[in-house]
Every structure is written in structure tokens, then in C-alpha cells.
Amino acid sequence: MSKLIAITGITGTQGGSVANTYLALPGWKVRGLTRNPSSPKAQEWASKGVEMVAADLNDLSSLEKALQGATVIFGVTDFWTIFQDPESMTKKKPGQDITEYCFEVEVAQGKNLADAVAKIHSLDRFVFSSMASAKTASKGKFGGIWHMESKAVVVKYIQQSLPGLKDKFSQIQAPIYYNLLWQWGLPTTPRKDSNGSYIIQGVGPSNILVPFGDVQNDFGQCVKAVVDAKPGTNLLAVGEMLSWDSYLETWCKSQNVPVGRYVEHTIDSFAQLLPGGLGREFGENVLFAQEFAYDGGEAGVVRPEQFGIGMTSFKEYCEKTDFSSIL
Ligand SMILES: NC(=O)c1ccc[n+]([C@@H]2O[C@H](COP(=O)([O-])OP(=O)(O)OC[C@H]3O[C@@H](n4cnc5c(N)ncnc54)[C@H](OP(=O)(O)O)[C@@H]3O)[C@@H](O)[C@H]2O)c1
């Protein structure tokens, strides 16, 4: 009999990668959770043989229903959907930072998901897309990287309040996506200088390595490795460790353009270049990773090479990507 994997976020990057991996595996059926099964993206998955079902992370009962019969559940919550929802501005408390409000909603969504997962009797493994607690790892120095903290709070909730999941729960951490560097309007996007070379702007020293990766392409095979490994596994799905210097150099060489320079900002001047929250969340994420390690230096976090997984290097990503919109 086939096993069933249920995937949240299937119409997005992480969940889509997981779906592609399991669709190609014999003996597996794939079920995708979406808020809107009739959206074009959802329909595309349905046409590939995925059973698409309606579920909302804000609605516990919809999750309980959608997860029935699953052997494996991959769960991702999305901070940025909440951030981009215009209603979030009206729902947050007066004076509250929008990013802190997004944290609260994402935590509630993650707890809903975990509570629903804990009721699935057919379950063998729950793999949750997590991030380190920057607040704990930095002893409070980075206390407000909300898109990280939310996921860490959910993990703590699972570990402390859902003992039934103890022998079924594992984590996977996404690195910073290669495409975030240039497709989200961040100052890290290469920009042509007056002399024809390309410059990037960022935070922190130019030579400290931070984990990046081609999440769309590689994440699914990493999730499969976690599913197949023992419970309690925590995998950082890094493709390549990059510094600002190596990012700029590799990108310029791949596009055959002169290597320019890296412009270092303070977190405040960086956040001003992209106000509203994204600049600060990203900038602090990088500074935290440079000082304390992206995974918070937590013991036992494993890497793809320990499972023999071939990951896409940044050079390979650059060579297959069309950057004409920024050249
Ligand atoms: N970008 C990075 O560099 C990076 C690095 C590490 C971690 N992350 C984390 O990755 C997460 C985002 O993952 P992603 O990039 O795969 O997302 P994505 O491509 O933006 O897609 C978002 C997915 O979330 C689903 N979704 C949103 N709200 C939902 C709700 N209320 N109920 C059910 N499903 C909902 C959407 O499904 P429907 O629209 O079909 O309902 C969609 O499939 C974020 O939390 C972010 O912090 C990102």
C-alpha cells in the first residue's frame, strides 16, 4: 500500500520542492494543503497527480481534516504572507511593530499545525521547517528577529507540550535562498556602478561565511533524508556557505561583468534602504548568522553532505539563472 505525505505550502518554494521529490518516488502519494484549491498553482499540482485539499493554518479543524491518513507530514509556515497581508496593519495592536504581529500570527499557525499533527494516528514522521532562536543563541542580543523566533517558539511548544510527537518529530532549516539576494528588492541586489562594475550593499564584514542555497531545487531531497533518518534529526539544508565577497565575485564572473565592491552598512542604515521591516529582519538575520552561526551553533545540527546529498552551488545556480532584469 502507498504511503501518503501531506505537505503544507505546496504552492510555495519549500513545499513545492518537497512535492517534486515525493512525486518521483515510487510507493508514495502526495497530498497538498492550500487555502485555495482552485488557484492556478494548486490546479497545476492537481494536474501532476497531487490530491489538493483546502486547509488554512489559521483554522485548526481544517488542518485536522486535511492531514487524516498521512504517514509523513511536512510543515512550513510563512511569515511573509502575513507580513504582506494588508489586513495585518489593521489587526496589529496600536504601536506594535508589524513584524512582531507577524511573529504572533505565525506562532499561532505553527501551534495549530502541531496540534493537528499530534492527532494523526497514522503518522510516522513530522518534519517542520524551523529556524534557530536568535534570542536564545545570542543571549538576548538579537531578541527581535521575528521570522526566526516564531519558528523556534513552535519547536519549543512541540517538544514541551506534545509528548506524543517525541518519537516522530524532526526539523529542517532552510538556508537563505539564493534568489532572496536579488529578487526581493534588497540592497544586496547587484547594481551597476558608474564605472561599469557591479556593487552590492549589505551588513557586517565582507568575509564571513553564511549559509545559502537553491531551496526550490534542493530542499525536497533534504526533507526526504530527514524523513528517512531517525526522529530528532535537525538538518540545515545549506547549499553553499557564502560571504559578501564570494557572492559578488561568483555572480560577476558568471555574468561576465567586472567585479565591483561590497558596501558595508550598519543595521540602521541598511534598514533605511528598505524600510517597513524586511530590511531589518534580513539584516539582523545576516548579522546574527555572522556572529553566532545561522543555526545558533546548536549541537547536533547536521548538513546535507552527511547524507551524501549533492547540493547546488552558487556558481551552478548563477549559470542556470536569467539575471537579465538586473544586468
Ligand atoms: N526566503 C528565505 O531566504 C528563507 C530562509 C529561511 C526560512 N524562510 C522561511 O520560509 C517560509 C516561507 O516558505 P516558502 O518560501 O516556501 O513560502 P512561499 O514560497 O512564499 O509560499 C508560501 C506558502 O505558504 C502557504 N500559506 C500561506 N499562508 C497560509 C495559511 N494561512 N494557510 C495555509 N497555507 C498558507 C501558501 O499556500 P496557499 O497560498 O496555496 O494557501 C504558499 O504555498 C517563511 O516563513 C520564511 O521565514 C525563508
UniProtKB/TrEMBL annotation:
Transmembrane segments: none annotated. Keywords: NADP. The keyword NADP applies. It holds the Pfam family NmrA. InterPro entries: NAD(P)-bd_dom_sf, NmrA-like, NmrA-like_oxidored. Residues 1-296 form the NmrA-like domain. GO terms for cellular component: nucleus. The keyword NADP applies. PANTHER family: NITROGEN METABOLITE REPRESSION PROTEIN NMRA FAMILY MEMBER, NMRA-LIKE DOMAIN-CONTAINING PROTEIN. Belongs to the NmrA-type oxidoreductase family. This is NmrA-like domain-containing protein. It comes from Aspergillus mulundensis.
